[in-house]
Amino acid sequence: MKKVSQLHVFRAFASRNYSLYFIGRAVSQFGTWMQRTAVVWVIYSMTHSAFLLGVTIFAEQFPSFLLSIPGGVAADRYNRYTIIRITQVTSMVQAVLLAVLVITGHAAVWAILLLSVALGIINAFDVPARQALINDVVASPEDLPNALSLTTATASLAQLLGPALAGIVLSVFGAGVCFLLNAASFGGVILSLLLMKLPVYQPKKANKKVIAEFAEGFTYIKNTPDIGLIIVMLAVVSLLVLPYNTVLPVFAKVVFKGDASTFGYINSFVGIGAVTGTIFLASRKPGTHLRKVMFVSTLLMGLGLICFSQIKSFPLAMLFAVIAGYGSIAQYTVSNILVQSDAAPNMRGRAIGILLMAIFGMMPLGSLLTGAVSEHIGAPATVLGQGIIAVVIALIFSKFLTGPLKKVNPK
Description:
The chain is mainly alpha-helical.
């Protein structure tokens, strides 16, 4: 029984293309988390401003909000394989430019913010194409939820180990090396793409204008409430709760009296919870009531944040960071599984684009809000409030999340 269970967890690897996709993304995600950790630490070290931490996250994520729907349309209209190759190369260039700025001593705040905006624009086209490509590289449609969970587990594992490694590299070698390692990691994705054997791309006829396809995507979501309500809930959580990570550098430096390594450890314990959550979701059998999983996970996230914000003992606080990380990752993972599984194939890219808009639109605004509030009432009180809000959101959506499953009509 144990062997069967283990095979069940990793069943998506039966597809060679997905295995290559997984390996490439795993390498790249480690570099991505190292860069994210290094960027926020550099900004906080230069400015000591919680508000500017929010501005930094806003600068990267808000362009993705503005362009996520065009990114979704591009994923439906054009060759996703080609789009991803272009975005990986441009992301590599962005990381190299960051490294050059830091190593040469020209790392002005405005320059880092400008490069963060550039990365946000790249991600607006990369993420919808990359998520939609999973459908093309998984051999069996029944393995799609498993593949999505395993892919998210990769990001969670990178969130676990990437910041810890970044903390060590920051302390020993500096931020410039973190950026160079991230630039090198994009080679993993490019290599995996080159090794894939995909069907010859058949260009799709674009009979409608881009704006009409935008509207069609929103109309589809409106007429598919089981998908629409999931996106609404994710948007609210992304605005009011998930930006708690904006003030984690403050906890590391002020609350726990630490340094870059302490910041890396906090992110890593959040990552432990995220890895646990994604492995749990990957092991679920087809037919699992995922909305109930989302309800429980939201409650756990709220309780984890409430306790984390009030505990001064670092080891004990890390226990609740794990719980918060578990609940946080379930928001995106479950939402992604439900949207991709239930959306009609011809609407999938736009549905993913709207889902990403809910994240990239609300989280940067939430980061600004979190940074501004923290400046006035402090990081612990801010995170306490976010934990309480998470519990309230779970209760408001409890009837929808725990009710009987309805079959979605993907027309």
